[in-house]
């Protein structure tokens, strides 16, 4: 399981646990802009790279200008966003991108597929990650690597997502790291 889980860090306790593992990549969620420098410094000290979820940084706008600032200032491994303009900006700056989509019904699925084809991210994070059928459809329809995330609490669910074609699974459930 370990190689397919991408730890999603929400709290300082999550961060503390992560630094005691052998994971080398994570996703930063729910971060206050005032804490970002110290968190990134700590991760760097431990040889851990981070994808920063732009939409969830508190204290700044969630737009392409914030994306450019974050990339230039903190040099993350990549950017996560639900916004196409943010993904396009990150791609123009040659950084890895994770386009996060919420699939709640067939209309959301069709709209998401069109947006994925348009912005061509490196990865698509499909939420909820327990939606295995959607992970498979998005992967097949867009030829983009899929990350499954959301509501994943059991090893079985991680395996189901991987079996459905997900490249990775994001989870903040520390028991699965």
What would you give as the CATH superfamily?
A: Aldolase class I
Per DSSP, what share of the residues sits in E-state strands of 2 or more residues? Answer: 25-35%
Counting DSSP E segments of at least 2 residues, the number of strands comes to 10
Q: Regions with pLDDT < 50 over 5+ consecutive residues? A: none
Shape: globular
Average pLDDT, rounded to a whole number, is 93
Distance between the first and last residues' Cα: 8 Å
Number of helices: 7
Strand order across the largest sheet? 1-2-4-6-7-8-9-10
The major β-sheet equals: 8 strands, parallel, barrel
Quote the CATH topology.
TIM Barrel
In the CATH hierarchy, the architecture is Alpha-Beta Barrel
Class based on secondary structure composition and strand pairing = alpha/beta
Count of structural domains: 1
- What is the CATH domain class? Alpha Beta
Radius of gyration (CA) equals: 15 Å
Order of helices and strands: EHEEHEEHEHEHEHEHE
Helix content: 40-55%
